[in-house]
Amino acid sequence: MDLLRHLHYFVTVAEERHFGRAAERLHMAQPPLSQQIRRLEAELGVTLFERTTRRVDLTAAGTAYLARAREILAQVGTAADEARQVAAGVVGRLAIGCVGSATYSLLPDLSRRLADELPGVDFAFRGEMLVADQVDALRDGGIDLALLRPPVADGSLSVTPLREERLVVAVPATHRLARRRWLRVGDLADADLIVHSAGRRSAMYGVVRTLFTEAGLTPRIRHEVGETSTLITLVAGGLGVAVVPEPVRALALAGVDYVPLARPAPTVELAVAHRAERTEPHLLRTLEVLRELVSG
């Protein structure tokens, strides 16, 4: 800090070309300022100023030192600004991974809000991720936040519930079930089902299996897919029906109707997860924006 103070004194004297005016600008007495400059010259082993009774002028060494001193002070100021921005959570980089329904229903609004409120943070988004892939990506640093479906059996992750999402049935618009106001699970007993892949450890696959088991039924699974967009596309093609979270309605596709399940309708939880030790300000600010968006 002494060096920075000496640089500041030196630059001020060099700009004013007068110790008295420089001292006034620095809000200090002239003799201590003159002593500080003498001390700087002694430490450097060079004469920075040629002094007269009326003014001071830079020596050749002083002229060279002035350019570098200004650079150093500017860099220190920039570094201080960057540090304050980091501490405030308004700069940084963050990758967010989303399950299928959040990709279509939440990500558009979230990306806009983040761009407006945290323009200095560089965001990357990965949509249509299965929960198991999200957990792996959180562990290895591929993503920093995950919008996923609990439960998550990993003690290294912090998981915060965001909302409960009702389940609905996506049916082809020409299907007999499309004309119903609501459906029970039993109404799907003879329907061909399209589900998320069991082989890729989809959370929704387990939800659908449990739903049918609790109803005493065995699901007629005809197609397993990895992405929600593919699942709804196959429904539109008339290849079967699918049980999905209600926010999937945001994926509006011609030829698909969404019919609610009878009350009390089963739900699935949406949560946000990150590695528990991650407490960077920009990550915490992003969590705040996300919670405000969901609660609003």
From TrEMBL:
InterPro entries: LysR_HTH_N, LysR_subst-bd, WH-like_DNA-bd_sf, WH_DNA-bd_sf. Residues 1-59 form the HTH lysR-type domain. The keyword Transmembrane helix does not apply. The keyword Magnesium does not apply. It comes from the Bacteria. Keywords: DNA-binding, Transcription, Transcription regulation. It holds the Pfam family LysR_substrate. Belongs to the LysR transcriptional regulatory family. This is LysR family transcriptional regulator. It comes from Nocardioides ginsengisoli.
